[in-house]
Amino acid sequence: MRGVMLHVGPLAIRHPRPLRAALASLACATGLTAPLVACKDQAKESAAHAAPDAAVLADLVNKDVGEIERGLPQGAAKLGPLVASGADPRQDIAGVRRALVKVRREVIDLNVGKSTFFALTDADGIAIRNDLEEDAMAGQNLVALFPALAKARDTYTTGTGSFPTTSASNAPDKDWIAGAPVKRADGSTGAILVTGWSYRYFARHLQEALKTRLLDEAKAAGQEGKIPVFYTAVYDRAGVYAAPLTPDVDAKALVAQDLATKTESGPATGTVTIADRPFGFAAARTPSLAPDTGIVVLRSDDI
Asked: Which end of the chain is more exposed for a tag (fewer CB within 10 A), N or C?
């Protein structure tokens, strides 16, 4: 559930452009250049830098999805005793939660995965219990919310949809979900193991990964701590899902780019000016997450 899953950490706040950079931009725009003023297209330069950033994050998405693809069926197999010999896991809710916590700890891919919850449903997709202390998911028909989960009665599957939100935020969001069947000894499905994350939470994870990359690059270049202004988001044909604390003006600028169309034939880059600051962006599809879905990096090196 987004209102339960999301934990927003502090992000860098964009500060006004330094006076020197602003004067240089003005000089280049008016042609009043001086020997010490180097005119260059800051936005295009930022877009060029954003392209490898986006490529690295697209690979990270594949890695994150791969961990769930490998780990969830293993976890489901470990939960077999909950439905063995006609057992009904609904009769031991506390035991279900303990089993979910144990599975996450014991299956390496799930332990390092980026999931924000694990839940057990019955064979029809009705949630029994998740592994969070406060369970706002119990009793919900997850197949109704995520129709793709109907296939999880038979095999590992993924899909997208939306949990009823308990967040005060009006920012658009979507949830990615994966499910794997928990089988009885006779091969029938007794339950479904489900996990997932929200796109905005996932964008925050990608943003933190990119921050680490940029800090390492700055340190290697002898400019420790000096990094560009940047934001990350997940997008699809329905919208753009930016990391929490991304300024609305920046998120709206990304929505206006129609990223799903621009990346139909491959990664795309472009430039945009937001609040008098030049930005470059790079976007790349991530089909392992969902069809027509990708990630975008918005970056300004005009610092």
From this structure: C
Q: What is the pLDDT of residues 254-265, one digit of tens each?
A: 999 999 999 999
Who's near 146: CB < 8 A, 6+ residues apart? 159, 160, 161, 175, 177
The domain limits of the chain are: 41-61+201-300, 63-198
CA torsion sign for 243, 244, 246, 248 is positive
231 vs 217: CA distance, rounded Å: 17
CATH number corresponding to 41-61+201-300: 3.30.450
Q: What is the token pair recorded at 172? A: 């658009």
Q: Provide the token pair at 251.
A: 């998120």
| Strand ordering across the sheet containing 239-242 | 239-242, 229-236, 294-300, 277-285, 268-274
| Residue range 225-245: mean pLDDT, rounded | 96
Contact assessment for residue 251 and residue 240, using Cβ atoms and an 8 Å cutoff: yes
Cβ atoms of 238 and 14 within 8 Å: the answer is: no
pLDDT digit string, tens, across residues 110-161 = 999 999 999 999 999 999 999 999 898 999 999 999 999 999 999 999 999 9
Which H or E run includes 129?
strand 127-130
